[in-house]
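Standup notes
- HV: blocked on the assembly model, inputs below
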Amino acid sequence: EIVLTQSPGTLSLSPGERATLSCRASQSVTSNYLAWYQQKPGQAPRLLIYDTSRRATGIPERFSGSGSGTDFALTISGLEPEDFALYYCQQYGSSLRTFGQGTKVEIK
Amino acid sequence: EVQLLESGGGLVQPGRSLRLSCAASGFTFNNYGLSWVRQAPGRGLEWVSALSGSGATTYYADSVKGRFTISRDNSKNTLFLQMNSLRAEDTAVYYCTKDYHWNGLYHSDHWGQGTLVTVSS
């Protein structure tokens, strides 16, 4: 099983600032099959990024993904009020998909 | 518009069984894999199980293998999760998700709103 470790656990930033979230895998993720999801309180997760860097339908350009192998990142270039939420990475390069434990982006 | 509506959650005693359903609409059902993902109260996401568009190939997390069975009825656009020998640690909101691809090995591009399963005596 591939273990994903997200850091930091909590990111305290102000609106307009840039957020960089990290996701590190315990072994190389096949074909860089890595996705990012956003979850707000009381809501289901929403797909943001898939295949490491492809934005899902309707996702603003301020969200971008990067990385390869074992190190991946989600960048939000200029936080909007609606971006303060929980973010999870997920690998699907293995038949046993796994999620990271999440990073909370909170208002400073 | 893709819609996924879960049902069947509730309070169940340890060791008993429960069957979740997910009614889907807004896409060609048998062209896509489907998955279940759960979230224990106040915790992160845990992938549970997935199956291919035909239902012939299934995948399970180690934590549920041998106890849970995923299946689908393509004539009724419905996904199921049969949960047996339930444990307290199975308590969670269970989300039905549509996969990006047919084979059941991709990410989830649409999610239902979830159904809560509580395992307690």
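- HV (later): unblocked. The mean pLDDT of chain B is 96. The first strand of chain B starts at residue 3 and ends at 7.
- Next: hand off to the docking folks.
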